[in-house]
Amino acid sequence: MTVTALSDPQARSRPELVVPALGRWLAGVHASPTEGLPVVSTAESVDRAVTRLEAGEVDLSGVDRAYQRIRPATLRAQLEAGVPPEADRPVAISGSARFDSLTIDEGVVSATCPITLAGDPYLDLASLARDLARLIGPEALWPFFDAYGLDRPDPLRLDFFMLLNALS
To answer: What's the structural domain count of the chain?
Structure first.
């Protein structure tokens, strides 16, 4: 396999190679030093998303189907009610961990943008879980979490960060 964007269907033709590589890559990112990285606060991210939502700056046709028919005021209430406690320890995060910003070469995943933030690991986990389920299939989620080293992903935290990502 040559360097290929994960958004390319060719890269996803070998999920048995791509999915574990993606989990290992993200675990490596989250294990990186955070010294000097600005911390992304979940509460501040929610405030920004709510501001964008209220200003009509969020294209709801681009969010997951489950959220498309929900009125913005209801989405806001759902987002604000579901804010999880801040992560015990912020980790280095991509902040844009999506298939369109990642490449793979010989089973090794790389980001096309530098890692410059620290925050809740579920921000990245939710983005990649969404892309995996949508582009490869839900059967890719457990191998991904296994390769990442997460035995019991928190479904409520994943859902919260999926919604936050969609509205940001």
So the answer is: 1
Backbone angles phi, psi at 152, to 5 degrees: -135, 85
> What CATH number does the domain containing 56 carry?
3.90.1200.10
pLDDT tens by residue, 11-48: 888 899 999 999 999 999 999 999 999 998 999 999 99
Give the pLDDT of residue 32.
95
Residue carrying the six token digits 């919604």: 163
> Could you tell me the pLDDT band of residue 120, with boundaries at 50, 70 and 90?
very high
Please name the residue that has the structure tokens 């320890």.
89
CB 143, CB 19: distance < 8 Å: yes
Can you give the residue range of the structural domain that contains 116?
4-167
- How far is C-alpha 45 from the geometric centre of its chain's CA atoms? 14
Give the CB-side neighbour count of residue 163, counting CA atoms within 13 A: 25
Record the pTM. Answer: 0.90
